[in-house]
Amino acid sequence: MASQAAFQRCISPGCAATFDITDVRVACPRCGSLLDVAYDWQRVAVPDRLDYFDSVYSRADPLRMSGVWRFWELLPFAPRSSIVTVGEGQTLLQQADAVAQYVGLRPGRLYLQYEGLNPSGSFKDNGMAAAFTHARLVNARRAACASTGNTSASLAMYCSVTRLMKAVIFIGSGKISYGKLSQALDYGALTVQITGDFDDAMARVREASGKLGMYLVNSVNPFRLEGQKTIMYRVLEGLRWEVPDWIVVPGGNLGNSSAFGKAFAELFELGLIPRIPRMAVINAQGADTLFQLVELRRLAWNGGDFDQKLVSQFYAEMDAAQRRASTIASAIEINRPVNLPKCLRALETCQGVVRCVSDQEILDAKAKVGAGGMGCEPASAASVAGAKLLRQQGIIEPTDRVVCVLTGHLLKDPTATVAYHTTDQKQFNEVLGARGVRRASFANRAVVVRNDLEEIIRAIELYS
Ligand SMILES: *Cc1c(COP(=O)(O)O)cnc(C)c1O
Question: Looking at the predicted structure, is the pLDDT value of residue 2 above 70?
């Protein structure tokens, strides 16, 4: 009989050999059967009722379960009785020392906020929970969005799980990664693929929503941003309510950056934080509208009186030159960010800066994130590449405490990841070379070995 409360035991009743919990085995050495993890229940404090878990972990109540709604007091626009949740926001702030070294930060100073852990695999679920709650409040029957992929995946999931509305999704042609498209299709959304890019899809969905009375869940929807505020509450929670020095976030339609600025402005006004962190919004070089406007043309919120003419002039030039957004980071491949004014306000609140990074820098940073943590999709890695750039420029100090938001899950865009790590030069060229990516500096290439045990063992000893 085992002397420990927890041990391993052969599943074969005739054998029932036991092994220590620290033994590493995949089969019973006596009879070859599989092993169980077993417990001597007399020796552990087993609760006498299952609802004991309610009192300890409080997870039965969806308001506590949701990473969005457990901050209900800070986004109280709907009564508790009408909230919608599918368990979003169970995400993680993780110290990432390997990535910190790459970025140029001291150990312990870089944190990654993994929003890819959301049910549909991106931060969009935070906002969708809030938008759905509002849509339910106003009895909407159909919800629509234009999407580079993650908003549609999230919308489709909330529709299929809650059955509250029918999802109508607008996508541009060839602009959506397979991971994301597969979600929209599998969740049963009506998917309308139009010829054009994200901005075209966005313009059409606004018109169609107006005509058909569909509830629009793009980040022009202010309720979405309420849900996205909670990403920052969870960051603060992860830091034991200490305010970091920098928040670094990729910028596409600028919903996140806008929501983060609002979250911090409100917390400061409520006297709940002593200071506001600085924020860096990172564009891709191939989709750098915010960078152009803010850093090169000095566009600023200016107390709300921002230079609208400068913006329309910039868009007119962009159209005249037929310049269209193009980056491997498809989630931020956007020409006309719909939340531009709110983002300008957030940049003022957070003494923000804007930078842009190349597809090469994005993919190299992404490989470092993958090798040093849970991985992310290309757009997310813009935050890490941007932090590295700001370190090089001396704007972020090596001792600053920096939080990079990883917006989407690694599996969202396997095409980009496999092309980066491939041994097949043709595949690399087709997916990445065409975008000006020259090298896969941190590629982890598969080792090709003949089906021969000796050779396999030699390869393992050589490479590990
Ligand atoms: C939507 C999205 C972005 C862009 O966020 P905005 O709030 O639109 O700036 C970045 N990364 C991923 C993975 C996204 O899905």
Answer: no
